[in-house]
Amino acid sequence: MTRVIVVGNEKGGAGKSTLAALIATAMMYRGSRVAVIDADLRQQSLSRFLANRRRWLPAAGVDAPVPMEFKLADDTAALAMGDPARAVACFEEAIGMAMVESDLVVVDTPGSDTPVSRCAHLQADLVVTPMNDSFVDFDVLGLIDPLTLELVRPSLYTRVIQEARAMREAHGRDLEWVVLRNRTIGVEVHNRERLSHGLESLARQANFRIGPSLRERVAYREMFPFGLTIADLSPGVRPSDISAPRQAAREELRDLLTGLRLIPRSAPASGDTAGEAAAVVAPLA
Ligand SMILES: Nc1ncnc2c1ncn2[C@@H]1O[C@H](COP(=O)(O)OP(=O)(O)OP(=O)(O)O)[C@@H](O)[C@H]1O
Ligand SMILES: [Mg+2]
């Protein structure tokens, strides 16, 4: 059975495209046949990441896996400006083909409510929502009382998930939801504790799991021009001006995949897998 993971959050800049690229690349090394769809028709960050990967790998002589990409159109920005029903039809066609060809489909969505994004959420077995450790980001998930900092009610994006879940359940299908904090930094203890309280209340009310956090790391953003993620790096695969991935980042990636229940708890840390160890030396192209 092909699994569909939708990386979503109506808040822009939460880390959706970064996380989608990370999950897609890491799961190829874990043996999945991965397909990706970039449903952010205007920005196309994930699609551009993959275009960079397709150019950089052969130029650098690196034999690393590339996910299958299913594009909605040649000119997705024009598609976004046109008839929404046509864009939705293109998405449905793309995901239909992706599901036939792969074990895992990773869909990146825009930081806004669009018909294509809604349609993607209806297809999701798992929605992964990254959020910055900030009340501004939390505000699209839940409304917080300014006097007590207690959760008042779910807000915009939570309702999108609730609606998608209700529609899936009507057809006997589940929607698992994991929310995780992205770009965490060590010093914000008080802010994090206050935010945790709201997040835990909302998790109970809206039925999501709180996933493992990703820290703020240069390694998550510096390799976009090469189309690489930390899942690709090994002693043999490294653009020449990139620092070696630290053990902590590799463990963080493994915790992410186990937290999303994509790999078993006993799996080795990223970088220890056969695919990564077998990759060849990669000078900067
Ligand atoms: N854990 C991280 N550490 C460092 N930088 C990060 C991390 N996660 C994301 N970033 C950076 O944060 C910015 C926003 O990330 P990204 O583009 O993935 O978010 P997004 O949710 O896809 O945004 P949009 O809603 O605009 O599509 C980018 O510059 C990205 O490189
Ligand atoms: Mg994005």
Structure description:
There is one protein chain. This protein has 285 residues and is an alpha/beta fold. It has one domain: Rossmann fold (3-Layer(aba) Sandwich), CATH 3.40.50.300. It is built from 10 helices and 9 strands. The strands form 2 sheets. Strands 3-2-4-1-5-8-9 form a 7-stranded parallel sheet, with helices on both faces. A two-stranded antiparallel ribbon has the order 6-7. Helix 2 (45-60) links the parallel strand 2 (34-38) and strand 3 (68-69). Helix 1 (16-29) packs across helix 2 and helix 4 packs parallel to helix 5 (115-122). The protein is globular. Residues 272-285 have low confidence and may be disordered. The structure holds adenosine-5'-triphosphate (ATP) and magnesium ion. Adenosine-5'-triphosphate (ATP) is lined by residues 12-18, 40, 43, 45, 110-111, 182-183, 214, 216-217, 220-221.
Give the topology, please.
Layout: E1 3-7, H1 16-29, E2 34-38, H2 45-60, E3 68-69, H3 76-81, H4 84-101, E4 104-108, H5 115-122, E5 126-132, H6 135-138, E6 142-144, E7 151-154, H7 156-170, E8 176-182, H8 189-206, E9 209-210, H9 247-259, H10 274-278
The protein binds adenosine-5'-triphosphate and magnesium ion.
Magnesium ion is lined by residues 16-17, 40, 43, 45, 108.
